[in-house]
């Protein structure tokens, strides 16, 4: 097989998972997660999924595309471009990882590593997809459960479409329904027309001309639904309307059309649209951001220019939100995140770092501190060194004012990877603090949707029971 054929055949038709490391070496694909060498034709191996708008391909084009993504979609740029995220008010992307890390000088010898950011990037005729290592059913479940409006059972019909359009539709539906709950937005709009009564400012010159049916030419302002914002939402909805998930929002779409009354303007004007100043419409400002992204991506799809576009989602933050909501739904008093715990950095600017554990809850006058990690847990070596330092710092600071009941970490783990493990208490000021590693066990993605949803619900219940048992144990 030639080198030109090698890269295309290795990359096409498979799925690149988050938090994985892949190496192409000597015509073999090496997945560092599985610690095994896999022949290039073995489709059971996790690999990279590149889609093409054209049948023609070349190794140089594919390699250049991968290097472009690695060099431009960096951790610094991810923070600048505001990674798309569900419930981003409380959970912000703070990863130091790039979308992908690529090391190597040629298509036959290189390594590629993924992180916590999933989604897709498109440039010219190439599209790179990254999905959850736990499978699409897991991703669909936590998206649906994290959002109060989505119906889990309706995800199956469209969730296997390319490029995560279903996930964009999920996010758009969430933002649209949350914003619409207070009604359609209105703004003061300037009108100039003839009226029977003087309204606003009358045209002085026109006043001395013969009247047409006794009407005056007036310019005035009044609240109106005919706004650029409403038109932006309509166009974004229409670009995603093929997604079955949005069918339940057709009544909102119909209301927007009636209120818009045929108002139109250019896409350029829509992209320059400002936010609403009225705090009542703050949810609509989030919808403005998302709608612009949807329209810009659609514009890039139909353009002949070589542009880069896509949607990225921080799955680690989504998983954190999912676990926090799971605890709250089961009457565990999870505290809101706050910035009152700080430690000085020692610099000349007297800067302080804010300490924000992922989960803090109080029961029976005791404080429980847990960090949620989406990364893989190493059952042989345990928690990573930097994460242990982090939990020790959290416990030490909270122990200044609170009695610590227990602390630890919560990880997702595949059913087949779950093993027995051992933990011992940590020591703070000569006092032993109970330390735990808890797991949300993720069922196999190969199961049918009903069985998968049933099993993960049961596993969520088991996790909650473990936490409640800890509370009772240290009552």
Descriptive keywords:
five-stranded antiparallel beta sheet, about 475 residues, disordered N terminus, five-stranded mixed beta sheet, about 25% strand, 3 domains, 21 strands
Report on this structure.
- The chain is built from 13 helices and 21 strands.
- Strands 1, 5, 8, 9 and 13 form a five-stranded mixed sheet that branches. Strands 4-3-2-7-6 form a five-stranded antiparallel sheet, with helices on one face.
- The protein folds into three domains: 131 residues, no CATH class; 132 residues, no CATH class; 144 residues, no CATH class.
- It starts with a helix and ends with a helix.
- A hairpin with a 2-residue loop joins strand 2 and strand 3.
- The chain is 35% helix and 24% strand.
- The N terminus is likely disordered.
- Helix 1 crosses helix 2, helix 7 runs antiparallel to helix 8 and helix 7 packs across helix 10.
- It is of the alpha+beta class and 475 residues long.
Q: Helix amount, in percent?
A: 25-40%
Helix/strand structural class: alpha+beta
Round the mean pLDDT to the nearest integer and report it. 77
Largest sheet: 5 strands, mixed
Radius of gyration: 27 Å
Proportion of residues in extended strands: 15-25%
Total number of beta strands: 21
Would you identify the regions where 5 or more consecutive residues have pLDDT less than 50? 1-6, 34-56, 148-162, 302-306
Number of domains: 3
Helical segment tally? 13
3D shape? globular
Give the N-terminus to C-terminus distance in angstroms.
66 Å
């Amino acid at each position: 097989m030639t080198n030109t054929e090698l890269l295309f055949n290795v990359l096409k038709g498979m799925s690149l998972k988050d938090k994985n490391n892949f190496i192409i070496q000597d015509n073999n694909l090496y997945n560092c997660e599985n610690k095994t060498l896999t022949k290039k034709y073995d489709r059971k191996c996790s690999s990279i999924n590149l889609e093409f708008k054209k049948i023609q391909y070349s190794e140089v084009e594919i390699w250049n595309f991968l290097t472009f993504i690695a060099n431009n979609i960096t951790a610094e740029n991810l923070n600048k471009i505001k990674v798309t995220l569900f419930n981003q008010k409380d959970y912000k992307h703070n990863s130091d990882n790039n979308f992908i890390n690529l090391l190597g000088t040629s298509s036959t010898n290189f390594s590629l590593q993924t992180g916590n950011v999933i989604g897709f990037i498109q440039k010219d005729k190439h599209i790179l997809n990254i999905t959850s290592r736990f499978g699409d059913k897991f991703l669909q479940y936590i998206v649906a459960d994290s959002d109060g409006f989505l119906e889990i059972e309706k995800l199956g019909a469209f969730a296997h479409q390319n490029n995560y359009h279903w996930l964009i539709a999920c996010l758009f539906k969430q933002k649209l329904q949350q914003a619409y709950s207070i009604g359609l937005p209105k703004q003061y709009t300037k009108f100039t027309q003839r009226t029977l009564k003087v309204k606003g400012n009358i045209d002085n010159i026109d006043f001395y001309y013969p009247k047409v049916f006794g009407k005056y030419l007036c310019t005035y302002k009044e609240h109106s639904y005919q706004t650029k914002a409403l038109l932006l939402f309509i166009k974004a909805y229409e670009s995603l309307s093929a997604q079955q998930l949005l069918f339940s929002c057709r009544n909102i779409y119909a209301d927007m059309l009636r209120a818009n009354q045929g108002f139109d303007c250019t896409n350029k004007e829509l992209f320059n649209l400002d936010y609403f100043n009225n705090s009542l419409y703050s949810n609509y400002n989030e919808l403005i951001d998302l709608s612009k992204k949807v329209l810009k991506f659609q514009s890039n799809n139909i353009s002949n220019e070589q542009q880069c576009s896509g949607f990225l989602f921080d799955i680690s933050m989504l998983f954190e939100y999912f676990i926090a909501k799971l605890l709250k739904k089961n009457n565990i008093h999870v505290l809101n995140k706050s910035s009152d715990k700080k430690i000085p950095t020692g610099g000349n600017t007297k800067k302080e770092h804010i300490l924000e554990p992922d989960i803090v809850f109080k029961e029976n006058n005791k404080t429980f501190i847990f960090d949620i990690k989406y990364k893989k847990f190493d059952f042989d070596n345990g928690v990573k060194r930097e994460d242990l330092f982090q939990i020790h710092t959290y416990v030490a600071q909270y122990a200044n004012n609170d009695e610590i009941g227990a602390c630890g970490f919560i990880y997702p783990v595949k059913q087949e990877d779950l093993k027995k493990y051992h933990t011992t208490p940590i020591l703070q000021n000569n006092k032993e603090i109970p330390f735990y590693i808890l797991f949300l066990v993720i069922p196999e993605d190969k199961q049918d949707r009903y069985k998968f949803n049933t099993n993960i619900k049961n596993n969520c219940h088991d996790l909650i029971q473990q936490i409640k048992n800890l509370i009772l144990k240290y009552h």
